[in-house]
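Narrative of accomplishments. A recurring question from our advisory board has been how the design workflow behaves on a single, concrete structure rather than in aggregate. To address it, we present the structure tokens for one chain from the evaluation set, followed by the sequence designed for it. No filtering or post-editing was applied between the two.
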């Protein structure tokens, strides 16, 4: 028998969007916030020579700077006030999550519910400020070391740069929280999504221009387009994949009524770690290239050899890239999903997996299943990121067509659509409740 929620979900269509006034306000607020973000990526830091900065960026765009520039929507290339983007906040969130697994006090705080969550969020904000200050100071010093970029080097420039970039990051963090609470949700993800999508048309035009100039063969461009479509379809299929564990609840008696036992499912996503593994793997592997670009051949010989071996398309780079992706898939999955805590919650509510004893055995079984599907998920992430990486390396395709960017764009799009469908579903429920009240009033 199909439930009312399933019937509404099956009949869900965006024609109901015109009647959902609250949802339309949320969508307009989200669009307005993203426009503010895009405007901020064009406001440059004071005291910067744009022409000299462009020359420096051309030499360093293959490193980690190019990756952050992609996430920030070109703000790094223009050295705008939002150059740090939301990345310090993401790093701080991951560090706090790591600390909750090793610190008993933070772990206890996490279990306190809403009050504990607010405290952890406050710690995350403090850590975001610290990381942003360090990164902004490093950027200021790096800009001063580049000839002709800074008009007047000194402590005034460093302090103003630190204040401006840190303030930009805090504003982006606040803007993401506003999108989450007053918009359609996923504020942080939508900001990164907007940055990538905003630069995709330009990357596509540059690719066509390279084809016109003969730098890229026409069959390669067609192969890239086919690859993008195939990768998107593959990501959608794999991101929707779940392993559902059957959960049963025993019969229970409330007063004089005996309620039959119920069953539900515990969904385990194939890719529990999300987009974090490729982002971390890319960041770590691009650090040597970034340092080498600033050193301009002045470093030791062994460092130059390591940098060449870790260049795009090199066998060592590909092997290390896949190995780091697999490692971070398992590592981050272990952080965000706790089988012991899940098993304890099931036991508290009387739920159990058939033929599995509640408690420790249930936790072991969930961990066993999660490990097996994470193997498949890690292989999927590695394949999605590796194949575009080969095209980027051998065909000089722009960085924006990489697997990481496609994975972020598709994942955030799917989450956003789910959020919109959830709001529409709630609106339809409200309509049903109002109709039932009106009918009840007429009968009286």
């Amino acid at each position: 028998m199909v439930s009312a929620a399933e019937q509404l979900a099956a009949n869900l269509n965006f024609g109901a969007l015109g009647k959902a006034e609250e949802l339309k306000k949320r969508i307009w607020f989200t669009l307005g916030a993203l426009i503010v973000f895009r405007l901020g990526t064009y406001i440059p830091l004071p005291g910067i020579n744009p022409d000299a900065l462009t020359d420096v960026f051309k030499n360093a765009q293959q490193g980690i700077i190019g990756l952050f520039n992609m996430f920030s929507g070109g703000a790094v290339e223009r050295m705008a006030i939002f150059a740090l983007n939301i990345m310090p906040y993401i790093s701080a969130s991951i560090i706090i999550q790591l600390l909750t697994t090793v610190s008993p006090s933070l772990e206890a705080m996490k279990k306190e519910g809403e009050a504990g969550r607010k405290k952890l969020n406050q710690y995350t904000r403090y850590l975001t400020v610290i990381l942003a200050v360090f990164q902004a100071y490093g950027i200021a010093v790096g800009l001063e070391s580049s000839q002709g970029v800074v008009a007047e080097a000194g402590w005034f420039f460093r302090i103003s740069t630190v204040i401006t970039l840190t303030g930009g990051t805090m504003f982006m963090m606040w803007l993401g929280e506003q999108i989450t609470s007053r918009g359609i949700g996923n504020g942080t993800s939508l900001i990164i999504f907007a940055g990538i999508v905003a630069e995709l048309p330009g990357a596509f035009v540059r690719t066509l221009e390279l084809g016109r100039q003969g730098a890229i063969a026409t069959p390669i461009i067609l192969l890239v387009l086919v690859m993008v479509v195939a990768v998107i379809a593959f990501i959608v299929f794999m991101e929707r994949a779940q392993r559902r564990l059957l959960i049963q609840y025993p019969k229970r008696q409330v007063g004089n009524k005996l309620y039959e036992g119920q069953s539900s499912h515990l969904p385990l996503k194939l890719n529990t770690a999300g987009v974090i593994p490729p982002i971390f793997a890319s960041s770590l592997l691009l650090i040597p290239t970034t340092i080498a670009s600033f050193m301009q051949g002045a470093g030791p010989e062994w460092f130059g050899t390591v940098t060449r071996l870790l260049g795009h398309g090199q066998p060592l780079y590909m092997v290390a890239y896949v190995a780091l992706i697999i490692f971070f898939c398992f590592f981050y999955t272990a952080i965000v999903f706790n089988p012991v805590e899940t098993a304890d919650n099931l036991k508290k509510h009387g739920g159990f997996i058939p033929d599995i004893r509640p408690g420790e055995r249930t936790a072991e079984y969930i961990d066993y299943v999660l490990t097996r599907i994470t193997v498949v998920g890690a292989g999927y992430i590695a394949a999605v990121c590796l194949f575009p990486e080969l095209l980027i390396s051998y065909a000089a395709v722009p960085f924006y067509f990489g697997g990481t960017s496609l994975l972020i764009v598709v994942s955030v799009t799917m989450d956003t659509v789910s959020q919109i469908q959830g709001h529409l579903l709630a609106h339809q429920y409200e309509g049903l409740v109002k109709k039932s009240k009106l009918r009840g009033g007429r009968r009286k």
